[in-house]
Design a protein that fits this description.
Layout: H1 2-14, H2 34-54, H3 59-74, H4 77-89, H5 97-102, H6 108-127, H7 132-153, H8 162-169, H9 172-193, H10 198-221, H11 226-243
Length: about 250
């Protein structure tokens, strides 16, 4: 029952989808479910993309709709963190960065970061014409595993906030291994039915970016906050999509 409460809490936190109203929720350890929420999100995006393809919607328009629907399903949760992180990075005085990130007003660098992330996602997804379902399914999941990795291995810089809830509740080894197991099982199933190089490529891209993006923000801020957790998700998704446009993955 406790796991169900935690799972439903993760559903309501990470996805803007309805949940049972009378069910008690437990938000204490929801980060462990983040990769699963990514797979659910990816599955919804795959179905949406397939439906739009049946309607013969042009690829660029279809990709734009998918990215905007992606944003809608998450409520802009992670993009907001990426914007705040960009505003913090724009401050030359490191001691003022957390204060700037806590300000609810979006600065110029935050707005530019949002435009850059959404544009990169739209252009990249538009360039992916083969195996789109696989990319849409796995990239959101790997980006959320990257968040679990970041929460697990880097210090947290604030005493309160949504990120503090994740940091206090994480259990690094079972949470990381559980996410990897779920992603590995899905990838193995896909590889059984369609053994293409893209499947291990997505895993390698996901693993490498999970470490590099988290490490970048750790070095920039000396640790992490809830905002940088969101930034990790967004940048792993955007850079991952861009890398997966390279043609040799599909040969």
């Amino acid at each position: 029952m406790n796991n169900l409460k935690s799972l439903l809490a993760a559903w309501t936190f990470y996805l803007c989808l309805p949940a049972p109203q009378k069910m008690e929720l437990d938000f204490s350890r929801i980060a462990r479910w983040a990769p699963l929420m990514g797979l659910i999100l990816g599955g919804i995006l795959c179905l949406c993309d397939y439906g739009l393809a049946l309607l013969e919607m042009p690829l660029v328009v279809r990709s734009t709709v998918i990215i905007l629907f992606w944003l809608l399903l998450t409520g802009g949760l992670h993009l907001d963190g990426a914007m705040d992180s960009a505003d913090g990075l724009a401050v030359t005085d490191p001691t003022r960065r957390l204060a700037v990130m806590a300000d609810s007003t979006t600065g110029a660098f935050g707005a530019m970061a949002a435009v850059a992330i959404l544009s990169l996602k739209i252009v990249s997804l538009s360039a992916i014409t083969q195996q789109r379902w696989l990319v849409l399914l796995m990239i959101p999941a790997w980006a959320r595993w990257a968040q679990v990795l970041t929460i697990s291995i880097y210090p947290y810089l604030k005493a309160e906030g949504k990120g503090a809830m994740h940091r206090k509740g994480v259990e690094p080894i079972p949470d990381l291994l559980g996410g990897l197991l779920a992603l590995g099982m899905v990838a193995a199933t896909q590889f059984y039915w369609q053994p293409v190089i893209l499947i291990p490529a997505v895993a390698c891209v996901g693993l490498i970016l999970s470490y590099l993006v988290g490490k970048y923000f750790d070095r920039a801020f000396g640790g992490h906050t809830g905002d940088t957790y969101g930034a990790v998700v967004e940048w792993v998704e955007a850079i991952g999509l861009a890398i997966l446009t390279l043609p040799f993955w599909y040969r």
